TrEMBL record:
Residue span of region Disordered: 1-27
CDD domains (alphabetical): GT4_AmsD-like
PANTHER family for the chain: D-RHAMNOSYLTRANSFERASE WBPZ (PTHR12526:SF627), GLYCOSYLTRANSFERASE (PTHR12526)
Superkingdom: Bacteria
Domain Glycosyl transferase family: from-to ranges: 228-386
The name this protein goes by in its record: D-inositol 3-phosphate glycosyltransferase
Length: 480
């Protein structure tokens, strides 16, 4: 589907779509129009789920919401899309679709960041469709959801709209090359939103962005529709992609200690990925064949968590930790490594779960056994977990976004001046360095009194921070 045609049609449908039970939130004509730019709304993934959750919650509050999917590889999305939310795919990658026959589809992307690990999935056709869509976009707010898309937004997004970058990965998870490019482009945005306060602090410290708000807004995790766990099943559950960073190997090592002392307890690991064969080999090696099982992927996962009494995460790092909140929604306490950056902001240690040192199987096994041996504490933590998970209800998260939109509109001029002052200061520093190099060069060779005077005037003005006067003087005497 072409961006232009698709956009026009979906907007028409969007404006006539009934608001249903939520129409009391406000006049349709005065709604805020919000566009969410997503890599592939038709795929399975944490960012897809959180974006769909946010879109639905924004629609609940009377906003006019559209999701623009950079790619489309199947007829229907794997996750349900709220019927009030318009979905606009830009490039159809299906083998029988018309887009794959276009010459631009065979060309690599030029505008999508080469440093973004998804670059090989993008084509020149993506570049052109994104530009076309954004050039016609009449949204009040446009939100990007991954680095390459955020740079699309910074470069081509409508200037009248608020342009916001969401970062679903940690700052330190990006390569140095990618961080350098992002620092250059993110300066043109209105805000950068991380999923944790800790990551927002890292961005503020390591990627100064004058005039850009950097703040944390956690992901929405809707309440589960399944009955909560009663905390009696002798089951420990874990979920996630089977990749090295999730450290299921460490979890299996810890559970071998648990199984030796409590052989009736079972470990169920949900998920798929490249580590499956290695993990199965480790299960056999540790003699856990009757105690630990790789269950495969499940979606939604809540029904499985509700059949467990504990959920465990052994990750080396988590940008947020959605599965932790999903477990808490089911009334299940979570034992997690205190890894950067999400778990410590989700789990209240000793109240609704346990935090243990990262990479320590003995500490992990000990925390699991403490709760295995103390059913009353386990059930009390489960109740506290359900209560604590309300922090991730849709309403408070949407309220934070609405407040952000209002504040960004209100201080837009002030932030523009902040950017201008920052650019002026940077130019002044550049002039000062140039003047010092000029003086150093003149000292190394004979020069006329007039040349020395020009250089000295330039150096004094530049060093004093009066970059405009220095520039004017340089132009006047021919040194610029």
């Amino acid at each position: 589907m072409k961006a232009g045609a698709g956009t026009s049609q979906s907007r028409g449908a969007r404006r006539t779509r009934a608001t249903g039970p939520h129409e009391g939130h406000g006049n349709v004509e005065s709604r805020t129009k919000i566009v969410l730019l997503l890599h592939n709304a038709y795929a399975i993934g944490g960012t897809v789920r959180t974006t769909l959750n946010l879109a639905s919650a924004l629609a609940d509050h009377g906003h006019d919401v559209e999701i623009v999917s950079m790619l489309r590889h199947r007829e229907s999305p794997r996750f349900a899309v709220d019927p009030r939310v318009a979905l606009v795919p830009l490039v159809d990658t299906r083998a029988d679709g018309p887009d794959v026959r276009r010459p631009e589809y065979a060309e690599p992307a030029r505008d999508f960041l080469a440093a973004d690990k998804r670059h090989d999935q993008y084509s020149r056709l993506n570049d052109l469709r994104v530009r076309e869509y954004l050039s016609r976009c009449d949204a009040d707010v446009v939100i990007g959801t991954r680095p390459g898309i955020n740079v699309y937004l910074a470069r081509f997004g409508p200037r009248r709209a608020l342009r916001i970058a969401q970062e679903h990965l940690r700052h330190d998870a990006h390569s140095k090359k990618l961080r350098r490019v992002l620092a250059r482009h993110y300066r043109g945005l209105d805000a950068v939103v991380t999923t944790t306060e800790a990551d927002a602090a890292v961005y503020r410290a390591r990627m100064p962005l004058p005039g850009v708000r950097v703040l944390a807004v956690p992901n929405i995790v809707p309440e589960s529709s399944v009955p909560p766990s009663d905390g009696t099943a002798e089951v420990v559950a874990a979920a996630g992609r089977l990749v090295p960073g999730k450290r299921f190997d460490l979890l299996l090592e810890a559970f071998s200690t648990v199984a030796a002392k409590e052989p009736d307890w079972q470990l169920r690991i949900y998920g798929g990925g490249p580590e499956r064969e290695r993990l199965q080999g480790l299960i056999d090696e540790l003699g856990l064949g009757g105690h630990a099982t790789l269950m495969g992927a499940r979606s939604p996962i809540e029904a499985e968590f509700a059949q467990a009494s504990l959920v465990v995460s052994a990750s080396d790092a988590e940008s947020f930790g959605m599965t932790l909140v999903e477990a808490m929604r089911c009334g299940v306490p979570v034992v997690s490594t205190d890894c950067p950056l999400g778990p410590a902001e989700i789990i209240r240690d000793g109240i609704d779960g346990r935090l243990v040192p990262t990479g320590d199987p003995s500490a992990l096994a000990e925390a699991i056994l403490d709760l295995v041996w103390d059913p009353p504490a386990r059930r009390a933590m489960g109740l506290a977990a359900r209560d604590g998970a309300h922090r991730y209800d849709p309403a408070p998260i949407v309220a934070r976004y609405e407040l952000l939109f209002a504040e960004l509109r209100a201080d837009r001029v002030a932030r523009a001046w902040q950017r201008a002052r920052s650019r002026a200061a940077a130019w002044s520093r550049t002039c000062t360095r140039a003047a010092r190099r000029r003086l150093a060069g003149l000292r190394s060779r004979p020069a006329s009194a007039r040349a020395w005077a020009r250089a000295w005037a330039w150096a004094r003005a530049s060093a004093g921070g009066d970059w405009a006067r220095a520039w004017a003087r340089g132009v006047q005497d021919g040194t610029r």
